[in-house]
């Protein structure tokens, strides 16, 4: 069943960014109901929110109701998550002090849904002790906050107060919408993306991994309550918010990053495409072309999973196998050699599967030899499928 988000918009220049929040939520199949304060309507017309949300936008407490329901109660109950973005100092102050004098503050007072507040205001206002006290108080009674960012504000000041990026706010909403927190308290270490092996200062060897698969697993584990550390090779996509990110470059860097964190993790998921070889000698200067062919001698990198296999105590270790042929046989060899609990075999020769795609076709093999076969799914669904097995 699709989820309902009620979005409260209060009056500030960042109101226009709330349109992007609505649009992103709608793209994810989430119903959005917008409540605006009167001053928010001075910045953006309700019609814009109405067109994007495809729902009637509520502003006034006393206008003719569109249904027989008491509107603020009905929206308060409908909400799976209640978001206020942008939230002004005024709205935060009202909520913290139990004032409910318009549709937004009345509805938020009546909701039992988790409330997420994304403040946006002038730096001095944000740093004001009263505002900070209100935020601290609301946090202490379970309200969630996405901190504003620093930068040049609309008023010309430079400092903290810019509304957090819509993408980040939507990620927090998704975290709150995901109710099964079955990985709470677990430390999950995930690797993603490619590694780069330098030939000289301007050239390197790499592969086609984009990080999409590993990032999807990191997001899914975070949404299910885990403490996630994502070790990522260089990618062109934004890593998930609200997790620890460790950026690495080469296979050697990735080995060190995993090795340092392995003992304290509960689960390791190696979805990174780690280079098996690197140039034997990295040139410190750019290699000049000549009329002759150029040979680059390669040497083996450490196999990270193989290196850490004897350090396993309580950890569940999940590997991936990217195969173009003999998928099952090759994956079965790897599960044994690397002492894995599961291996996720993806046939990267198939269209819509493997490197760079938004979907993946996988088989999951466990250490007892059981094989589960799955249809082509989005990488988000693959991520949850892996975590479901892990939880079981
Ligand atoms: O990032 P995307 O574009 O979304 O693509 C996703 C993916 C195809 C990269 C991913 O789904 C995947 O299959 N990752 C593993 C790719 C791979 O390197 O497979 P492999 O068969 O070479 O390695 C087997 C396992 O050993 C993997 O878990 C790998 O992380 C690990 N390994 C490999 C080499 C090495 N030196 N050390 C390792 O630990």
Descriptive notes:
- The protein has 392 residues and is of the alpha/beta class.
- It has 2 domains: 4-177, Rossmann fold; 187-282 and 297-391, CoaB-like (Rossmann fold).
- The protein is 33% helix and 24% strand.
- It has an 8-stranded mixed β-sheet, with helices on both faces. A 5-stranded parallel β-sheet has the order 2-1-3-4-5, sandwiched between helices.
- β16, α13 and β17 form a beta-alpha-beta unit.
- The two termini are 24 Å apart.
- The model has no long low-confidence stretch (mean pLDDT 94).
- The site of ligand PMT has 27 residues, from α10, α12 and β16.
CATH architecture of the largest domain: 3-Layer(aba) Sandwich
In percent, how much strand structure appears in the residues?
15-25%
- CATH uppermost class of the largest domain: Alpha Beta
What name goes with the CATH superfamily of the largest domain? CoaB-like
Ligands in the model, by name, code or SMILES, are: ligand PMT
What is the tally of beta strands? 21
Number of domains: 2
Biggest β-sheet: count, sense, barrel?
8 strands, mixed
Brief descriptors of the model:
elongated; Rossmann fold; five-stranded parallel β-sheet; binds ligand PMT; single chain; alpha/beta; 14 helices; eight-stranded mixed β-sheet; 392 residues
